[in-house]
Amino acid sequence: xxxxxxxxxxxxxxxxxxxxxxxxxxxxxxxxxxxxxxxxxxxxxxxxxxxxxxxxxxxxxxxxxxxxxxxxxxxxxxxxxxxxxxxxxxxxxxxxxxxxxxxxxxxxxxxxxxxxxxxxxxxxxxxxxxxxxxxxxxxxxxxxxxxxxxxxxxxxxxxxxxxxxxxxxxxxxxxxxxxxxxxxx
Length: 185
Known about the structure:
Blueprint: E1 8-9, E2 15-16, E3 28-34, H1 40-48, E4 53-58, E5 69-75, H2 78-88, E6 101-103, H3 121-141, H4 148-152, H5 159-174, E7 176-177, E8 182-183
Antiparallel strand pairs: 1-2, 3-5, 3-6, 4-5, 7-8
Helix pairs in contact: 3-5
């Protein structure tokens, strides 16, 4: 039912924008539940042939989603997003996976801001030592050379840079989120 202000109202009383006013945040599309065994190249091949394609991004595996990933596909304009969504919606990619494409929505929260104490040199030195100890322990548990990465760190580098390198290593190699103190998959 038309409400008179350009929106449509369903029987439940909820207003929705008409289909032609869909907002494509950052000129991007979103796909959830991308299987881990689906290679990035398959998706790139599929979307690169679409007009206005800019890039494809895949998330790390999401533990709560049984190891599936998210994908974001960026285009030059909202009209390219719309065309691609209409053309590829529900297209089979494999025997078990079909594209369920949605417009990328505006983030619900703003950027995360860290407390200034996190950048205090004493705190950075403390966290760096904890990260070094944790890296050695996890490397040993997994049969890796415990000191390999530590010998690769820039010796003259700023402690914050060294800490960031170690935190990225812990995430990428050991699936460990340092400040949450837990492993993730």
